[in-house]
Design brief:
- The structure is a single chain.
- It is built from three helices and twelve strands.
- It has a six-stranded mixed sheet with strand order 3-5-7-8-9-10.
- The longest helix is centred in the first third of the chain and has 14 residues.
- The protein is globular and about 45 Å long.
- The model has no long low-confidence stretch (mean pLDDT 87).
- This is Putative restriction endonuclease.
Length: 181
């Protein structure tokens, strides 16, 4: 798709649009719950410091053209971008927020991918199930450990590989409206 065509295209409201260098256009729907959940995770990350390297929807380079723009990621403090992207080796934690259309990808595909590349902590944050699954101890095919925590069960401290602790407040994660599905 040409730049001129992109500039004159009206994309549907409620979608995030990504443009790949290979000419692909990816559109992904976003819900209020999705956005509010990411915001809540960012607020909780302030305990790491106002200028901690916390990113959302920013591409991270993975081998074999498996690049990702996760919903939320914490990157090592000394990490340097190559161009505009961080490398997967610098990522300490990735979180994906489940939407109705992304459940299989977030629970299955991303768990295998992020484990395969050694991401130390992968969280699946599911507003519809009101749970957070924390995967640790990556392997070549996923993760050895997965622990499920219910929304409303207090603060969840998560040890990062650099010795810092990210604490997710499970009491503050937003729940979807009854008819939001």
């Amino acid at each position: 798709m040409s730049v001129d065509a992109v500039m004159h295209t009206e994309f549907p409201a409620g979608y995030v649009v990504f443009f790949g260098t290979d000419g692909k256009v990816l559109m992904t729907p976003r819900s209020e719950e999705h956005s509010r959940t990411i915001r809540s995770m960012h607020i909780d990350s302030l305990t790491l410091g106002r200028h901690a390297k916390v990113i959302s929807d920013v591409y991270i380079d993975f081998p074999a053209d498996e690049n990702s723009a996760p919903d939320f990621a914490i990157v090592r403090e000394g990490a340097q971008r190559e161009g505009k992207r961080y490398g997967f080796e610098d990522v300490l934690l990735i979180a994906e927020v489940v939407s109705v259309s992304s459940a299989r990808k977030d629970y299955d595909d991303c768990t295998a991918k992020y484990g395969r590349y050694g991401i130390p902590v992968y969280m699946v944050v599911d507003p519809y199930a009101a749970e957070v699954v924390v995967h640790t101890r990556p392997t070549g095919s996923g993760y050895i450990a997965a622990h499920t925590h219910q929304y409303g069960s207090g603060k969840l401290p998560i040890e990062l590989a650099d010795g810092r602790t990210y604490t997710l407040d499970l009491d503050e994660l937003p729940r979807p409206e009854v008819d939001a599905r």
